[in-house]
Amino acid sequence: MNILTFLLRSFLMFFVALFFIRILGNGNFSKMTSYKFVTYMFIALIAALTSANVISNLIFGIIALAVWTLLALALDYLCIKSKIMHDLFIGKETILIKDGKVLEDNLSKIRATGKDLLGELRSKNAFSLADVEFAVMEATGELNVLLKSDKKPLTAHDLQRKIAPASKPQAVILDGEIKDDALGAVNLSREWLNTELEKIGVISENVFIGQVDSSGALYLDLYDDNIQIPQNNLKELLYANIQKSKADLTSFTLDTNDEKAKAMYSRNAEKLKKMLDKLEPYLLR
Predict the structure, then answer these.
(1) Rounded to whole angstroms, how far apart are CA atoms 183 and 172?
(2) Residues sharing a CB contact under 8 Å with residue 62, sequence separation 6 or more, in sequence order
């Protein structure tokens, strides 16, 4: 086989193998089932052997790839429809810690030691075994951990505080180029962006990445890391100013003897308080 034939076969088999892999679907290799992993390896092996002319018949090589792909898809379908097939080919989860107690028998079933368990727990930021309420090893080999109630981090729900919903940040500048479609996605214009850049004292050509979050705050990463960008604290300043105005109105209420003025100050202070309650999730998140 001459070099030109080898290159042509390799070029063809690369795209054929890629086609069948795409049919199998994208997935995380760290969470891949064993039979799916074997299928990927077989596709790579057959493609390599066909490219090198070890499998001389090109059609036979492609048929072999198709057969393995169809078998993998059929097995996927059976595992979805049948729990028995699912447990047989994919496996079942194994509980390793329950009610804070390590289940040594289950640990031995997956051929893991206590040291292995501690290492997996550390990878989930559970450095103390005493903090863990429940841990299960999934069929893919991934360990999922539930911390004890008093060890879980506080959330806004726990504090009974409302948090404004956040949408996907938009990259409005990439490699110094302004992206008008990203600006449009957050209802902003190129004029707004240029104004914000002027405030900071940079031009778009010096920006590696510029990103706008759901609240309209602009974050910039410059090519020159030695340039310090002033922190965007506009929302915090706005909240502080409204709070100060409310405090001033409350103070005026206490200082004046005029009943009409006292009622006016008190009424406006209450309006500002209601405004702060509504704006707080957006300005202080």
Answers:
(1) 6
(2) 16, 50
Q: Which residues contact 37 (CB under 8 A, 6 or more apart)?
A: 29
Q: Tell me how far apart the terminal alpha carbons of the chain are, to the nearest angstrom.
A: 66
Beta bridge partners of 146: 134
Crossing angle of helices 3-24 and 34-51, rounded to 10°: 160
Edge-to-edge strands of the sheet including 101-102? 101-102, 94-98, 132-137, 143-147
Tell me: the pLDDT tens digits for 176-208? 999 999 888 888 899 989 988 888 888 888 888
Q: What residues contact residue 203 under an 8 Å CB cut-off, 6+ apart?
A: 197
Residue 214 burial by Cβ neighbours in a 10 Å radius (0-12, 13-18, 19+):
middle
Local confidence band at 158 (pLDDT 50, 70, 90 cut-offs): low
Distance CA 168, CA 65 (A): 39
pLDDT reported for residue 233: 58
Tell me: pLDDT of 29 over 70: no
3-state helix, strand, coil in the chain (%, to 5): 55, 15, 30
Look up residue 152 and give its DSSP letter. Answer: S
Q: DSSP H helical segments within the chain, as ranges?
A: 3-24, 34-51, 58-81, 83-89, 104-109, 114-123, 180-185, 190-200, 234-255, 259-283
- Alpha-carbon Rg of the chain, whole angstroms? 31
pLDDT tens-digit profile of 113-148?
888 999 999 999 898 888 999 999 988 788 999 998
The three-state secondary structure class of 69 is helix
> Which amino acid does the sequence have at 37?
F
